[in-house]
Design a protein that fits this description.
The chain is mainly α. The protein is built from 7 helices and no strands. Helices cover 54% and strands 0% of the residues. The radius of gyration is 15 Å and the shape is globular. The chain starts with a helix and ends in a 26-residue tail after the last helix.
Length: 156
């Protein structure tokens, strides 16, 4: 988890998270704070343990911490793609191998889509979705998500 802690303490990462939190200060729906990213990491790791999946804890936490960083780019049309592109900087800087970088970037790029069950991409997708309980959200009436996409359950 050394590299995860390096990312958490990276001044550029802190700046990006601060920018996202500032941009979403008045947002009613689904804020993308550091706490959200940590929730995604913890949920993904719990799912990994419960389902006995073969994914490394450090890679899970890294993907979760980086999965929304593209939101800092106001011009990004798809924050998942922008996040994957931005993640490469941190992955190189903090000595992730090309194989690890590919796995993480792929999961980040597809974290808004349900992937092949038990794949790393699907794990990050499910954890991101499970981090939000739409039925308990105070902004559920204003939410623009279609009803069929809202998370109404504790497990997927």
């Amino acid at each position: 988890m050394k590299r995860v802690n390096e990312i958490l303490n990276d001044p550029m990462y802190k700046s990006i998270i601060g920018r996202i939190e500032s941009m979403e200060e008045n947002r009613l729906l689904c804020k993308h704070s550091l706490n959200h990213s940590l929730d995604v990491a913890r949920i993904a790791y719990l799912l990994r343990l419960e389902e006995d999946l073969p994914f490394d804890k450090e890679l899970i936490y890294t993907a979760a911490l980086l999965h929304d960083i593209g939101r800092a780019k106001e011009s990004a049309t798809d924050h998942a793609v922008a996040s994957a592109e931005e993640a490469i900087y941190f992955l190189k800087k903090h000595n992730y191998s090309p194989e690890e970088s590919h796995i993480i970037a792929s999961a980040i790029r597809s974290h808004r889509e349900c992937g092949t069950r038990n794949s790393f991409e699907d794990l990050i997708y499910r954890a991101d979705k499970l981090s939000r309980l739409c039925s308990a959200c105070p902004s559920r009436e204003e939410c623009y998500w279609p009803v069929e996409q809202k998370n109404k359950d504790l497990l997927l």
